[in-house]
Amino acid sequence: MTETKTNQNESYPYTTVPGDALQTRIYTLKNGLTVYMSPYHDEPRIYTSIAVRAGSKNDPAETTGLAHYLEHMLFKGTDSIGSIDYAKEHTELEKIIELYEQYRATSDPEHRAAIYRDIDSISNVAAQFTVPNEYDKLLNSIGAKGTNAYTWVEQTVYINDIPSNELDRWLTIEAERFRNPVMRLFHTELETVYEEKNMTMDSDSRKLWEELFKGLFTKHTYGTQTTIGKAEHLKKPSIKNVIDYYRSWYVPNNMALCIAGDFDPDATIRLIDEKFSKLEPKPVPEFHPPVEPEITRPVVKTVTGPEAEELVLGFRFGGADSDDADMLTLIDKILFNQTAGLIDLNLNQQQKVLEGGSMLVLMKDYSVHILSAKPRDGQSLDEVKALLLEQLDLVKKGEFPDWLVTAVINDLKLEELKAFESNRGRSEAFVDTFVWGMDWARQVNRFKRLEKITKAEIVEFAKQHYAQNYVAVYKKHGQRKSEAKIQKPPITPIKVNRDRSSVFAKNLLAKKSSKVQPVFVDFKKDIGYYDITPEISLNYVPNRENELYSLYFMFDAGSNLNRKIDTALDYLSYLGTSRLSPAEFSQELYRLGAQFTVQTSDNYVYLKLSGLKENFPQAISLLDELLRDAQPDAPALEKLKEGIRKERADEKLSKRKILFEAMVNYGKYGPKSPFTNVLSDEEIDKLTPEELLGEIKHFMNYRHRVLYYGPDSPETLMTELRTMHHFGQSFQPVPVTDPFEELKTAKNHVYVVDYDMTQAEIIMLSRGAVYDASKVPLVTLFNEYYGGGMSSVVFQEMREAKALAYSVFSVYRLPKEKDRHSYVFSYIGTQADKLPEALDGFNELMQKLPESPELFASAKAGIDQKIRTERITKGDVLFALEEARRLGLDHDIRQDVFREVPGMSFSDIEQFHETRFRNKPQIMLVLGKKEQLDLETLRKYGDISFLTLREIFGY
Predict the structure, then answer these.
(1) Intra-chain end-to-end CA distance of the chain, in Å
(2) What angle do CA 58, 60, 66 make, to 5 degrees?
(3) Using an 8 Å Cβ cutoff, are 597 and 572 in contact?
(4) Which residues touch 800 (CB under 8 Å, ≥6 apart)?
(5) pLDDT of res. 490
(6) Phi, psi of 40, rounded to the nearest 5 degrees
(7) Which residues 6+ apart lie within 8 Å of 729 measured at CB?
């Protein structure tokens, strides 16, 4: 239906959809800007997404990567944001634009190098008149979180999470941002994109994805070009093309402003119109999607790289707004829902493959259904493919339970309920709908459509659409074949002018917003405390929003106490009971709309049961049955052992696992750490079903507590819980364990692991003080200023000024438990040939903290606004208490931060930097290709030790 609201002489008609749980209003302003709104007053914040219907599919074929590059440039400001003297800057920018056209047209290496030197020189002149990263500083000052953007095939989306009292100033910034973006600091940002390109060339999964889409789309730009673009195009950029792209696609009638959160819709639409009406509409270029030829026989591709082997199958279908999408939504879940899908039961639970799964990629012009799995030890990728295709054959034969379709729809409803509990989930749904050109009513009514689809129709659809019409990509272990890496150009560090502000920024920050009073968690009032038994307590928070519950059994013990518990609980997921087979148990759980998961860590374990209130009694009874009557299954255990060995081998191929877990633990603890505190291969071989089930029963006898967030009353809940046999026993106290000793950083040392990659990734560690709650406010302010975000000193110096990395940060990282040490934790991913400059840059920042009154004020203002408008609600309250307990706290630590940060001065964080950073010994962890690393440079930072995977993994 359509309603009209009138304010003075302006009317703002909007569309709503009957039955829409989000109460969405959809406006179209006079200039064509679409506005989606969903009021949600859970906290005084608003999640914002500004979507442009322009992505990599719209890139010109000769300059791929252009949409993504423009996304980066939208953070550089305008002739007002980030400009000190635009008239002078503009003169220099025009020279740079012309030089890039010459650079692009020149092939002679010496001539190109000479032109680039001119670009670099003039860029430094232009930079004198700019304030780099002023956009980010402004957003930080008003308390925004998650400031970022992303580009994909048909959209570029700019996101922020802002305080609701800052809506006016945010709209002022964003309307100005899109009015006239200036292509300043182009060559340093281009180098950042080069770094991102090199990162993708180090990613096996990215290469696999690209090959899959190349096979599925031989004509459409979904497959003929990539979002980040070809290396050869990135080497020959054109600022003119970027500007032309902006002028063609970034027009209000091709954009949507999607917001969800705490606001008054009538007042907000007036504000949006006031700010964004200056954007002028114009015709948008039409994109005519090519018709892809039918795939009549399998297309097989192979990708090689250092990470684990995998098989991926892709089928091509109609777009997100087609009838295909509804059928695919159901088939995807019938195959894989993490509990009772065909892949779940036949492949994962029976341990025939590793990590089997199904996923649906919806796009405007076409959609893709992807099946994937990793092989078990000794299994070929052809065997994996056959097993995945067998599951599709079962769908085509109708060999799945009749009730599964209804259960799948209920599961989808649960997923949507959970997603719409957040402003982000609501906003993202609006973005998808807009980008796909879909009517919102279609999204609102999708369950009505799904409920009309019969099992027979699903079977018939599968028969017609799944045959030999797939693309198979074999990801094999081996040397990666990729484009040549992009070499570093000579870049003179630009002046960051961090102590300057534009007139726009000064005027904006002088305009004060209304204050929102903070709300802190009161652990005594916000949580109900009850006793299920004299030994087992219940921490309770009511859910007054919907019918979903989450129940946790929380144990203050983990793998540090019992090295077998992780394997034992993993084994439990493959078992049934005397009454139900493993498959029947999973199916019954899924029919009830429930999910059972386990989380294990070094020092705690929790078992989680979640789902719909109406089926809670049956679900808790089912869980009780499993815990007391799980039946041993020797063949399942033998397969589990084989799977563990294969997963361990795969983990030793994972770049992220090697650096961020194995090497970091080695740097903190040495050869024996929580990470290496696992069962040996020999110990795994000796495990028996009875032993593992005994470990679970023994573990469940430890005293623990129950956490509950849901709609049931405490009395009803406890009545249900007391029916469990589990609570009819006595419980033992959790034994005290000696924690692993953290090594004191006595002197500098460099540890290197050789890995086949284009970049080098470096982590620097220096042990700090034992956790002290009184220092948390100071640490919070220091991290905000120094290295925690895009407006921080580290980001500005290392990325903006010197273009040394795509990803870089440095923080004083506090521990999660009392009596443990904090660490200076610094990271940079950079080209191996930039290693000397990157390390020099970090070393300079370690020795002297740059001072910027403007940035310091921004950091303090950002912390204040974030705390004022942040609300810890729902089940998060329970885990806020858990985190506080582990740190020995009895209150919400944000109270201390809010109270103390306003009175702090720059000298406070400067002294902290001098005490904790300057001239402190550090452990440097380097992951990279040995032959490409500058070992002479590394030796300046300490003695070098090359570590083997066996040493850092412990197996």
Answers:
(1) 64
(2) 75
(3) no
(4) 132, 133, 185, 188, 494, 496
(5) 74
(6) -155, 110
(7) 701
pLDDT of the residue at 488: 62
CA distance 681 to 920: 39
Query: What confidence tier does 8 reach under pLDDT thresholds 50, 70, 90?
Result: very low
Which architecture, in CATH terms, is 749-953? 2-Layer Sandwich (3.30)
> Does 5 score more than 60 pLDDT?
no
Q: Compute the average pLDDT of residues 714-739.
A: 92
CA-nearest of 833, 801, 802 to 928 is: 833
* DSSP structure string for 330-397: HHHHHH--SSSSHHIIIIIITTSSEEEEEEEEE-SSEEEEEEEEEPPTT--HHHHHHHHHHHHHHHHH
Q: Which residues of 848-886 are buried (b: 16+ CB within 10 A; e: fewer)?
A: ebbebebbbbbbbbbbbbbbbbbbbbbbebbebbbebeb
- pLDDT (tens digit per residue) in 146-194: 999 999 999 999 999 999 999 999 999 999 999 999 999 888 887 777 7
Nearest residue to 487 via CA among 109, 877, 99: 109
Q: What is the pLDDT of residue 4?
A: 44
Paired tokens of 596: 């059972």
Confidence of residue 144 (pLDDT cuts 50, 70, 90): very high
Domains 528-728 and 749-953 alike in fold: yes
How high is the pLDDT of residue 795?
Answer: 82
Distance, CA of 268 to CA of 258 (rounded, Å): 12
The fold of 528-728 is: Cytochrome Bc1 Complex; Chain A, domain 1 (3.30.830)
Helix, strand, coil content of the chain in percent (nearest 5) = 45, 20, 35
**Cβ–Cβ contacts within 10 Å for residue 824, how many?**
21
The Cβ of residue 833 has, within 10 Å, a number of other Cβ atoms equal to 14
Find the length of the chain.
955
Apex CA 425: angle with CA 420 and CA 426, to 5°?
Answer: 70
Which residues fall within 8 angstroms of residue 585, CB to CB, at 6 or more apart?
Answer: 575, 576, 577, 622, 626
Distance CA 708, CA 52 (A): 41
Question: What residues contact residue 739 under an 8 Å CB cut-off, 6+ apart?
Answer: 560, 819, 820
What is the greatest pairwise CA distance in the chain?
83
- Cα gap 869→862, rounded to integer Å: 11
Statement: residue 7 has pLDDT above 90: no
Write out pLDDT tens, residues 678-702: 999 999 999 999 999 999 999 999 9
Give the pLDDT confidence score for residue 10 in this predicted structure. 59
Judge contact between 395 and 336, C-beta under 8 A: no
Among the listed residues 736, 724, 734, the one whose alpha carbon sits nearest the alpha carbon of residue 533: 724
Mean pLDDT of 881-887: 97
pLDDT tens-digit readout, 293-318: 999 999 999 999 999 999 999 999 99
Residue type, 66: L
Q: What is the pTM of this model?
A: 0.94
Q: Give the mean pLDDT of the chain.
A: 93
224 in Cβ contact with 218 (< 8 Å):
yes
Domain 299-422+437-477 annotated CATH 3.30.830.10: yes
Q: What is the pLDDT of residue 202?
A: 76
State the CATH class of domain 2-288. alpha beta
796-808 burial, b for 16+ CB within 10 Å, e for fewer?
bbbbbbbbbbbbb
Q: Where are the domains of the chain?
A: 2-288, 299-422+437-477, 528-728, 749-953
CB 560 within 8 A of CB 590: no
As a whole number of angstroms, the distance between CA 596 and CA 550 comes to 10
Q: Report, as an integer, the average pLDDT of 370-377.
A: 97
- Those residues whose C-beta lies under 8 Å from the C-beta of residue 765, and which sit 6 or more positions away, are 664, 667, 668, 745, 823, 824, 825, 922, 923, 924, 925
Residue with tokens 């931060």: 897
- Would you place residue 483 in the very low, low, confident or very high pLDDT band (cuts 50, 70, 90)? low
Output the pLDDT for position 745: 85
